[in-house]
């Protein structure tokens, strides 16, 4: 593996990458601090190519954000509304079913359901939601409820995490999305989401899911008050859990959108393209035991998501449709992308598109 660096400090990290040695905290910080974006990208791309060759995954999916009512009041979130606050909504189960049915015609293989912590929505509501989705779109994988929502249901009913997850799975849940991880460092959580479960609890929910055979994703919300060291520590904690369970499928960095949030005065601007690519590349290098690094085009734009295919990324998520969290915080990207557009982006990067389901089973790869 030949690399060409502008920043000589990358040589030591490159030596480890060449030998397949694990990177540590210091390496991660060197990578983040280096101005040599192309150098870091070369390293990440080499790792990506070894794992996936030319294949780039995407999914035909739809998001459903069933309620924005939330008792957590996270300062980075423009989507959530306090109970009783104007603008709060809850979708009826009929509405949720209708949304899933409408997308069924487009050939979705995944529905992704995430919402706020609504004090009146209990396990019965979620059981019925999942059962109705399972019956409405049979065969479609249901990726629903973040660790934060699972923990909330456990608290509401005085149940163990294992019991809640077992009930949800029996009703139709296949996989947990990666939301709610934010940045694990207690200092950061205290500042941006003081009411949210701790990083340790988020990891415990995922560990329990993995033990039950439920595959999950992991995220990190970056570009607000966190330090580069805190970003790397977050990645190391994910890597450590993955060493023990192997239950994570993909890591997805989420680019903070400050608009309309309580953090906007403190963090008035969004992430830069440079930081977005660096974040994805460093994740690819640190998370050596994760199969997939996914660029969420809704947050970084389809063009940068396409470029990120040269920076360690092997998955550009999906058609998405109707994701409301980013839009509430000022996101300007389209409401969804067609399958044909995802194919075009991947092919124009010289790669081979592979349509997958949530669990990375191949749905289709023989595109004309
Ligand atoms: O948990 C909230 C984040 C997450 C903002 O698992 C924000 O495949 C940016 O987790 N700016 C929900 N981000 C979305 C999510 C997700 C998305 C795509 C794929 C997957 C997956 C998971 O969005 C929240 C929070 O971390 N978020 N507010 C904001 N202002």
Automatic annotation (TrEMBL):
This protein's record includes keyword Iron: yes
UniProt key word 4Fe-4S: yes
Family, per entry: Belongs to the radical SAM superfamily. MqnE family.
Species, as recorded: Desulforudis audaxviator (strain MP104C)
The protein's name in its UniProt record: Aminodeoxyfutalosine synthase
Pfam families per the UniProt record, alphabetical: CofH_C, Radical_SAM
Physiological role: Radical SAM enzyme that catalyzes the addition of the adenosyl radical to the double bond of 3-[(1-carboxyvinyl)oxy]benzoate, leading to aminodeoxyfutalosine (AFL), a key intermediate in the formation of menaquinone (MK, vitamin K2) from chorismate.
Keywords, alphabetical: 4Fe-4S, Iron, Iron-sulfur, Menaquinone biosynthesis, Metal-binding, S-adenosyl-L-methionine, Transferase
EC number: 2.5.1.120
GO BP terms in the entry: menaquinone biosynthetic process
GO MF annotation list: 4 iron, 4 sulfur cluster binding; 7,8-didemethyl-8-hydroxy-5-deazariboflavin synthase activity; aminodeoxyfutalosine synthase activity; iron ion binding
Radical SAM core domain location: 56-291
Residue sites binding S-adenosyl-L-methionine per the record: 76, 182
